[in-house]
Design a protein that fits this description.
CATH class of the largest domain: Mainly Alpha
Low-confidence stretches: 1-14
Radius of gyration: 20 Å
Structural class: mainly alpha
Strand content: under 5%
CATH architecture of the largest domain: Orthogonal Bundle
Shape: flat
Distance between the termini: 69 Å
CATH topology of the largest domain: Tetracycline Repressor, domain 2
CATH superfamily of the largest domain: UbiA prenyltransferase
Order of helices and strands: HHHHHHHHHHHHHHHHH
Number of helices: 17
Oligomer: single chain
Mean pLDDT: 88
Length: about 325
């Protein structure tokens, strides 16, 4: 007789959800990057914020991001059951019902937006509400299954968090915060299209019109390279606008060059195992790229704020 004391294994056997399943609905891996970029937006925004209020703002953004993930999993349960990388998610695996996931997502959405508005300001709350709506409705329910440009337009949802963090401090939407939005917005297509090149069969089986399935690998590789060029240029906007200094500029130039090299190498490969290997390398690099860029911006600003690098910020 084998005794199973792991609560997750018991949940799978009985069809009942455990805490880990509800946490999985929040897409914690995606949430980490969302929250980090929002924290950077909050900390580099001019003026500063009370630490307690700042913590509440970050908590609200994290909950709102998680709510978006839950609503996405609720609506996409049918295609998640087909794709190999999503088949074990809580809803297709039968551990959480679609109805429970929907209620969970809606409650978290309302709570996060209301609390952010009360704690900071309603511009930040409105941006958070729009972010949740954009990801759950515009991207998940409309764009994802209808156009190969789903990632391009839908990528805006993942680009709003630093603007939300910035607005929580300043109560405004500025050109500087839009620059942060633009970096993430232009990063999204090469990041996800590189993954799509590796997962063409999955997306094809699920009927999702990802660019490689609709226009083919050569066109996708060209688009990846074009967006990478635009991203490398946009990454220098914080320097041009005066809220980043030498550290950020150097790292942006070096990281952008690495991204361009990998995108160029992918463009030059054929449609075989070598292409998938190059696409996987680009996808992996892109994960670290965004984190490194925003970390460099944060370090640059903190050093300037404490007088270590005087004069590099406006």
């Amino acid at each position: 007789m084998v005794l199973i004391d792991d609560s997750r294994h018991l949940a799978v056997m009985t069809g009942e959800a455990c805490v880990e399943d509800y946490l999985a609905l929040l897409k914690p891996n995606v949430m980490q990057l969302v929250v980090f970029t929002a924290i950077v937006g909050l900390l580099v925004a001019p003026g500063g914020i009370n630490p307690v209020i700042g913590f509440i703002a970050m908590l609200c953004i994290a909950i709102g991001a998680g709510a978006s993930g839950a609503l996405n999993m609720w609506y996409d349960a049918d295609i998640d059951a087909i794709m190999s990388r999503t088949v074990n998610r809580p809803i297709p695996a039968g551990r959480i019902s679609g109805g429970d996931a929907l209620i969970f997502g809606v409650v978290l959405s309302v709570f996060s937006v209301a609390l952010l508005g009360l704690a900071t300001n309603w511009i930040a709350a409105g941006l958070l509400a729009f972010t949740i709506f954009f990801y759950a409705v515009v991207y998940t329910m409309w764009l994802k299954r209808s156009t190969p440009q789903n990632i391009v337009i839908g990528g805006a949802a993942g680009a709003f968090p630093p603007m939300v963090g910035w607005a929580a401090v300043t109560g405004t939407i500025s050109v500087d915060s839009v620059a942060l939005f633009l970096i993430i917005f232009l990063w999204t297509p090469p990041h996800f299209w590189a993954l799509a090149l590796c997962k063409q069969s999955d997306y094809g089986a699920a009927g999702i019109p990802m660019l490689p399935n609709v226009r083919g690998a050569p066109h996708t590789k060209l688009q990846i390279f074009v967006y990478t060029v635009l991203l490398a240029a946009a990454a220098l906007l914080p320097t041009m606008l005066g809220f980043a200094g030498l550290i950020y500029t150097a790292i942006a130039a070096l990281s952008g060059s690495g991204f361009l090299f990998l995108a160029w190498r992918l463009l030059r490969t054929g449609e075989d195992a070598a292409m998938r290997k190059s696409a996987r390398m680009l996808f992996t690099y892109s994960l670290g790229y965004l984190f490194v860029m925003f970390l460099a911006l944060l370090v640059d600003n903190l050093l300037a704020r404490f007088g270590v690098l005087p004069g590099v910020l406006s």
